[in-house]
Specification:
With 214 residues, the chain is an alpha+beta fold. It has helices at 12-21, 71-74, 123-138, 151-157, 183-196, 203-209, and strands at residues 24-29, 39-49, 60-66, 80-92, 105-120, 161-176. It has a six-stranded antiparallel beta barrel with strand order 1-2-3-6-5-4, surrounded by four helices. It comes from Microbacterium murale.
């Protein structure tokens, strides 16, 4: 992903929060698709450990796919995959700019992590990844579900998945949220997004929070 200089992530904390709150990622691996195209799977990928500096590079992520999904057989320990996290996004109409002529655009936030994969083949590792994933996703719920009584069920069905550890080696992030516009325009962009119902996540809050020069 190309990182536009004026749309760089405002902080590592914003990057971490986007990944934590939008864990339904794309795992992209080389080959396997039609005529050599990459293979992609949609699946939750969660943070196992951040690096010592609080960032992703040097940290670890966890994920899993269905064992019936042939992508896992294409993944070789130590090879690189791309993990794509999409945050809030939405169309921006020129009606919010209050001047003419103008052009529409799209506000969005996204994080791409390149990582070296390790296939975790044991049932114990698979159970750890599933339990960690449930714990992380339940932490986003108003009331977290207690998985304790369901762990025996997890143990019975965990053979149906293949788990991975991802050691992150590169991070790229773009937060393009109208920060190149004046405050009054950003406010209209946010209001228009809320009026539409923010169908692709709360991009309005990002537009309001991540301001540009006045």
């Amino acid at each position: 992903m190309y990182e536009f200089e004026k749309y760089l992530a405002p902080s590592q904390e914003e990057v971490n929060e986007l990944v934590r709150r939008h864990p339904f990622a794309l795992i992209v691996s080389n080959g396997g698709g039609a005529q050599g195209a990459p293979t992609v799977t949609h699946t939750p990928v969660i943070i196992e450990r951040l690096a010592d500096d609080g960032g992703f590079v040097g940290g670890e992520m966890l994920g899993h796919v269905a064992r019936k999904n042939p992508q896992w057989q294409q993944l070789v320990d130590g090879e690189s995959v791309l993990i794509v996290f999409s945050g809030p996004h939405g169309y921006v109409s020129p009606t919010t700019y209050a001047d003419d002529p103008n052009v529409p655009t799209w506000d969005y936030a996204a994080v791409h992590l390149t990582a070296r994969v390790t296939v975790l083949k044991s049932a114990e590792d698979g159970l750890h990844v599933v339990a960690r994933t449930v714990h992380e996703l339940e932490s986003l719920e108003p009331t977290a579900w207690d998985m304790t009584s369901s762990l025996p069920t997890f143990e019975r069905i965990v053979g149906g998945i293949v788990a991975f550890r991802f050691d992150v080696i590169e991070q790229r992030a773009v937060f393009k949220v109208s920060q190149d516009k004046p405050r009054d325009v950003r406010q209209r962009v946010a209001e228009a997004s809320r009026a539409r119902g923010c169908p692709y996540g709360d991009v309005a809050s990002l537009v309001e929070r991540i301001g540009g020069d006045e």
